[in-house]
Amino acid sequence: MTKIDEIAKMCNVSKTTVSRVLNHHPYVSEEKRNQVLKVIKELDYTPSSLARQLRANKSQTMAISVPAIDHPFFSQLIKGVSSKALEKDYKVLIFQTFYNVATEMEMLDLLKNKEVDGIILGALENEWSSIKPFLKYGPILLCNEYHDSAAVPIIGYDEFDAAYKAVSHLIERGHKKIGFCCDTPSSQAQQLRKEGFIKALLENDLQCEEDWMFDHAFSIQDGFRVFTEMSSLADKPTAMFTGNDQVAAGIIKKAMVAGCRVPDDLAVIGYDNQFICQVTTPTITTIDTPIAELGQQAAAKLIKNLGKNAEMKREVVRLPTKLIVREST
Amino acid sequence: MTKIDEIAKMCNVSKTTVSRVLNHHPYVSEEKRNQVLKVIKELDYTPSSLARQLRANKSQTMAISVPAIDHPFFSQLIKGVSSKALEKDYKVLIFQTFYNVATEMEMLDLLKNKEVDGIILGALENEWSSIKPFLKYGPILLCNEYHDSAAVPIIGYDEFDAAYKAVSHLIERGHKKIGFCCDTPSSQAQQLRKEGFIKALLENDLQCEEDWMFDHAFSIQDGFRVFTEMSSLADKPTAMFTGNDQVAAGIIKKAMVAGCRVPDDLAVIGYDNQFICQVTTPTITTIDTPIAELGQQAAAKLIKNLGKNAEMKREVVRLPTKLIVREST
DNA sequence: TTACAGTCTGGTATCGGTAACATGTCAATA
DNA sequence: TATTGACATGTTACCGATACCAGACTGTAA
């Protein structure tokens, strides 16, 4: 690698002068500036960003954590974050926690020693009390996750409202026995959904039946599993809030194969309005969520706060969602 | 941030001794070692990896480029790479090129100044001649891409064989008018598929019809588009090699809605054996590709070569694929 | 003529670690 | 007793950049 000293030597100037040229400082004569630029080009010199990072104590990099990248929701979220970051000239380090507490801590260490300037948590594996101490090292932001006492910006959907809308829709369609799927039950964001679900039920004098609640439902496979479990119940729900289009697709497919008609025998509602909703038979009624927008807003907010070294304050943004009615309800 | 000097001062030793403890060097007395470890724990000290990286001139980080992360194929590929990298204690910087030549060059610059130690190219936007000069800065590896003259390891599927198998299957089912979809037509990996496609046709005295070739087909939406374009043809194909499960799903859905029966009027074969194949109606015949395995092997090969500073040699690995017959053919 | 501000340039310390080399101790060996 | 080598520790340079301070030169106002 060519380094700044070599350029300096070739131009008979000090490396300070070369550095000034690189950083567009005034007070460099036109003549030397041109000469330095010429030599830089000739030698194809790129300054070491590692050295710069060390010196400046910042990295122009942010990290985002997700449980796993291969779920459409998270890959789209990341895409949103990345596109905004790219626009603002930040790099993005993507971290998959694989639902692992220790991996998440490793990522937080990146913040501690300034390998990244800030972090977006798209997953929350540890207790908040474990994460809190890292706030002094740089900004952290919750995206698509929720915590009631975290003193950081939180940006997500109005999960409560979304679930309420979805379940109300099922009730309007005449259903009285409604099931509920969620992914990680300990997640507070999932709790909010559950509260919305329950509110809609209670408003219509319906009960929340423990047997109709399913956990860790995230993928198409999980949808298969949920349908199988559900089928074995003596008293089966006639409608399902799945919390996830993949799960909805899985349930619907298994149902159709089993001769259970959707939506007549079983209505199913998804979440996120992924394209998969449009290719199943029947197509899937769902909640439209602006995922890319979510990612972009999160990244924008983080970047805005990277300059200041004031700690970020709690602030909850809930993006609106929309019910999209299709054939599965 | 606590730094190594502070630890040294607190322990009344030199920072070299602290460094020795950190790096598990021998020749540190048990007594001092324990004392240092104790103080490190007390002050919650983490060494700056930025400083380490600068000093060692390596970063324990690899980069992988993909066109966009939100396509299931690429997110699964990345997952494979990441899991292997995590296991070997490497970080992964994920780079989305967004099909952009300049963004790809930016990533290559990371290699030049050792922000990353090596690169896996899962996308290939620039001409190889633009990429080749970067080989002197560190190992580069092609994954799921192909280039006939690149002197680097290439790891992908046997695309030729896969397409050949798929199309032969369609022909066995009695089809004589077979269409072909690909994503970026300039990609040499796509070319290999096309050659396999053509070989199967020629062996059965069939022609490759220009009107039945579709470009830039990647997503469900693209599948919708392809079906629409196809429908407007006077002479329509009766079978489609889509090169991609999403495209297959899109085509199938539009076909069914339009009253075109699958597979009777139109047979469709996918590629990658994504879960989506199992939730459409009809389910999708496809080529099973071990995507995670591909990513893991790529990462493993790269890591193996990061230690040595010898340039990597050309070496082509083609993982086998398998035909999975379902209802769409 | 002197003083001072503005322009241009270089020397040196610094970011936070690690490596090479030097030094010193102590016990085993010749 | 002198020599050797294993062990233990510290001093100093270095990775590749930038920031601060100081010095030199120029032009204009006092």
UniProtKB/TrEMBL annotation, chains A, B:
UniProt keyword list: DNA-binding, Transcription, Transcription regulation
Domain HTH lacI-type: 2-56
Domain of life where this protein originates: Bacteria
One term of GO molecular function: transcription cis-regulatory region binding
Keyword Transcription: yes
InterPro entries: HTH_LacI (IPR000843), LacI/GalR-like_sensor (IPR046335), Lambda_DNA-bd_dom_sf (IPR010982), Peripla_BP_I (IPR028082)
Gene3D superfamilies, sorted: 3.40.50.2300, lambda repressor-like DNA-binding domains
Protein name: LacI family transcriptional regulator
Highest classification ranks of the organism: Bacteria, Bacillati, Bacillota, Bacilli, Bacillales
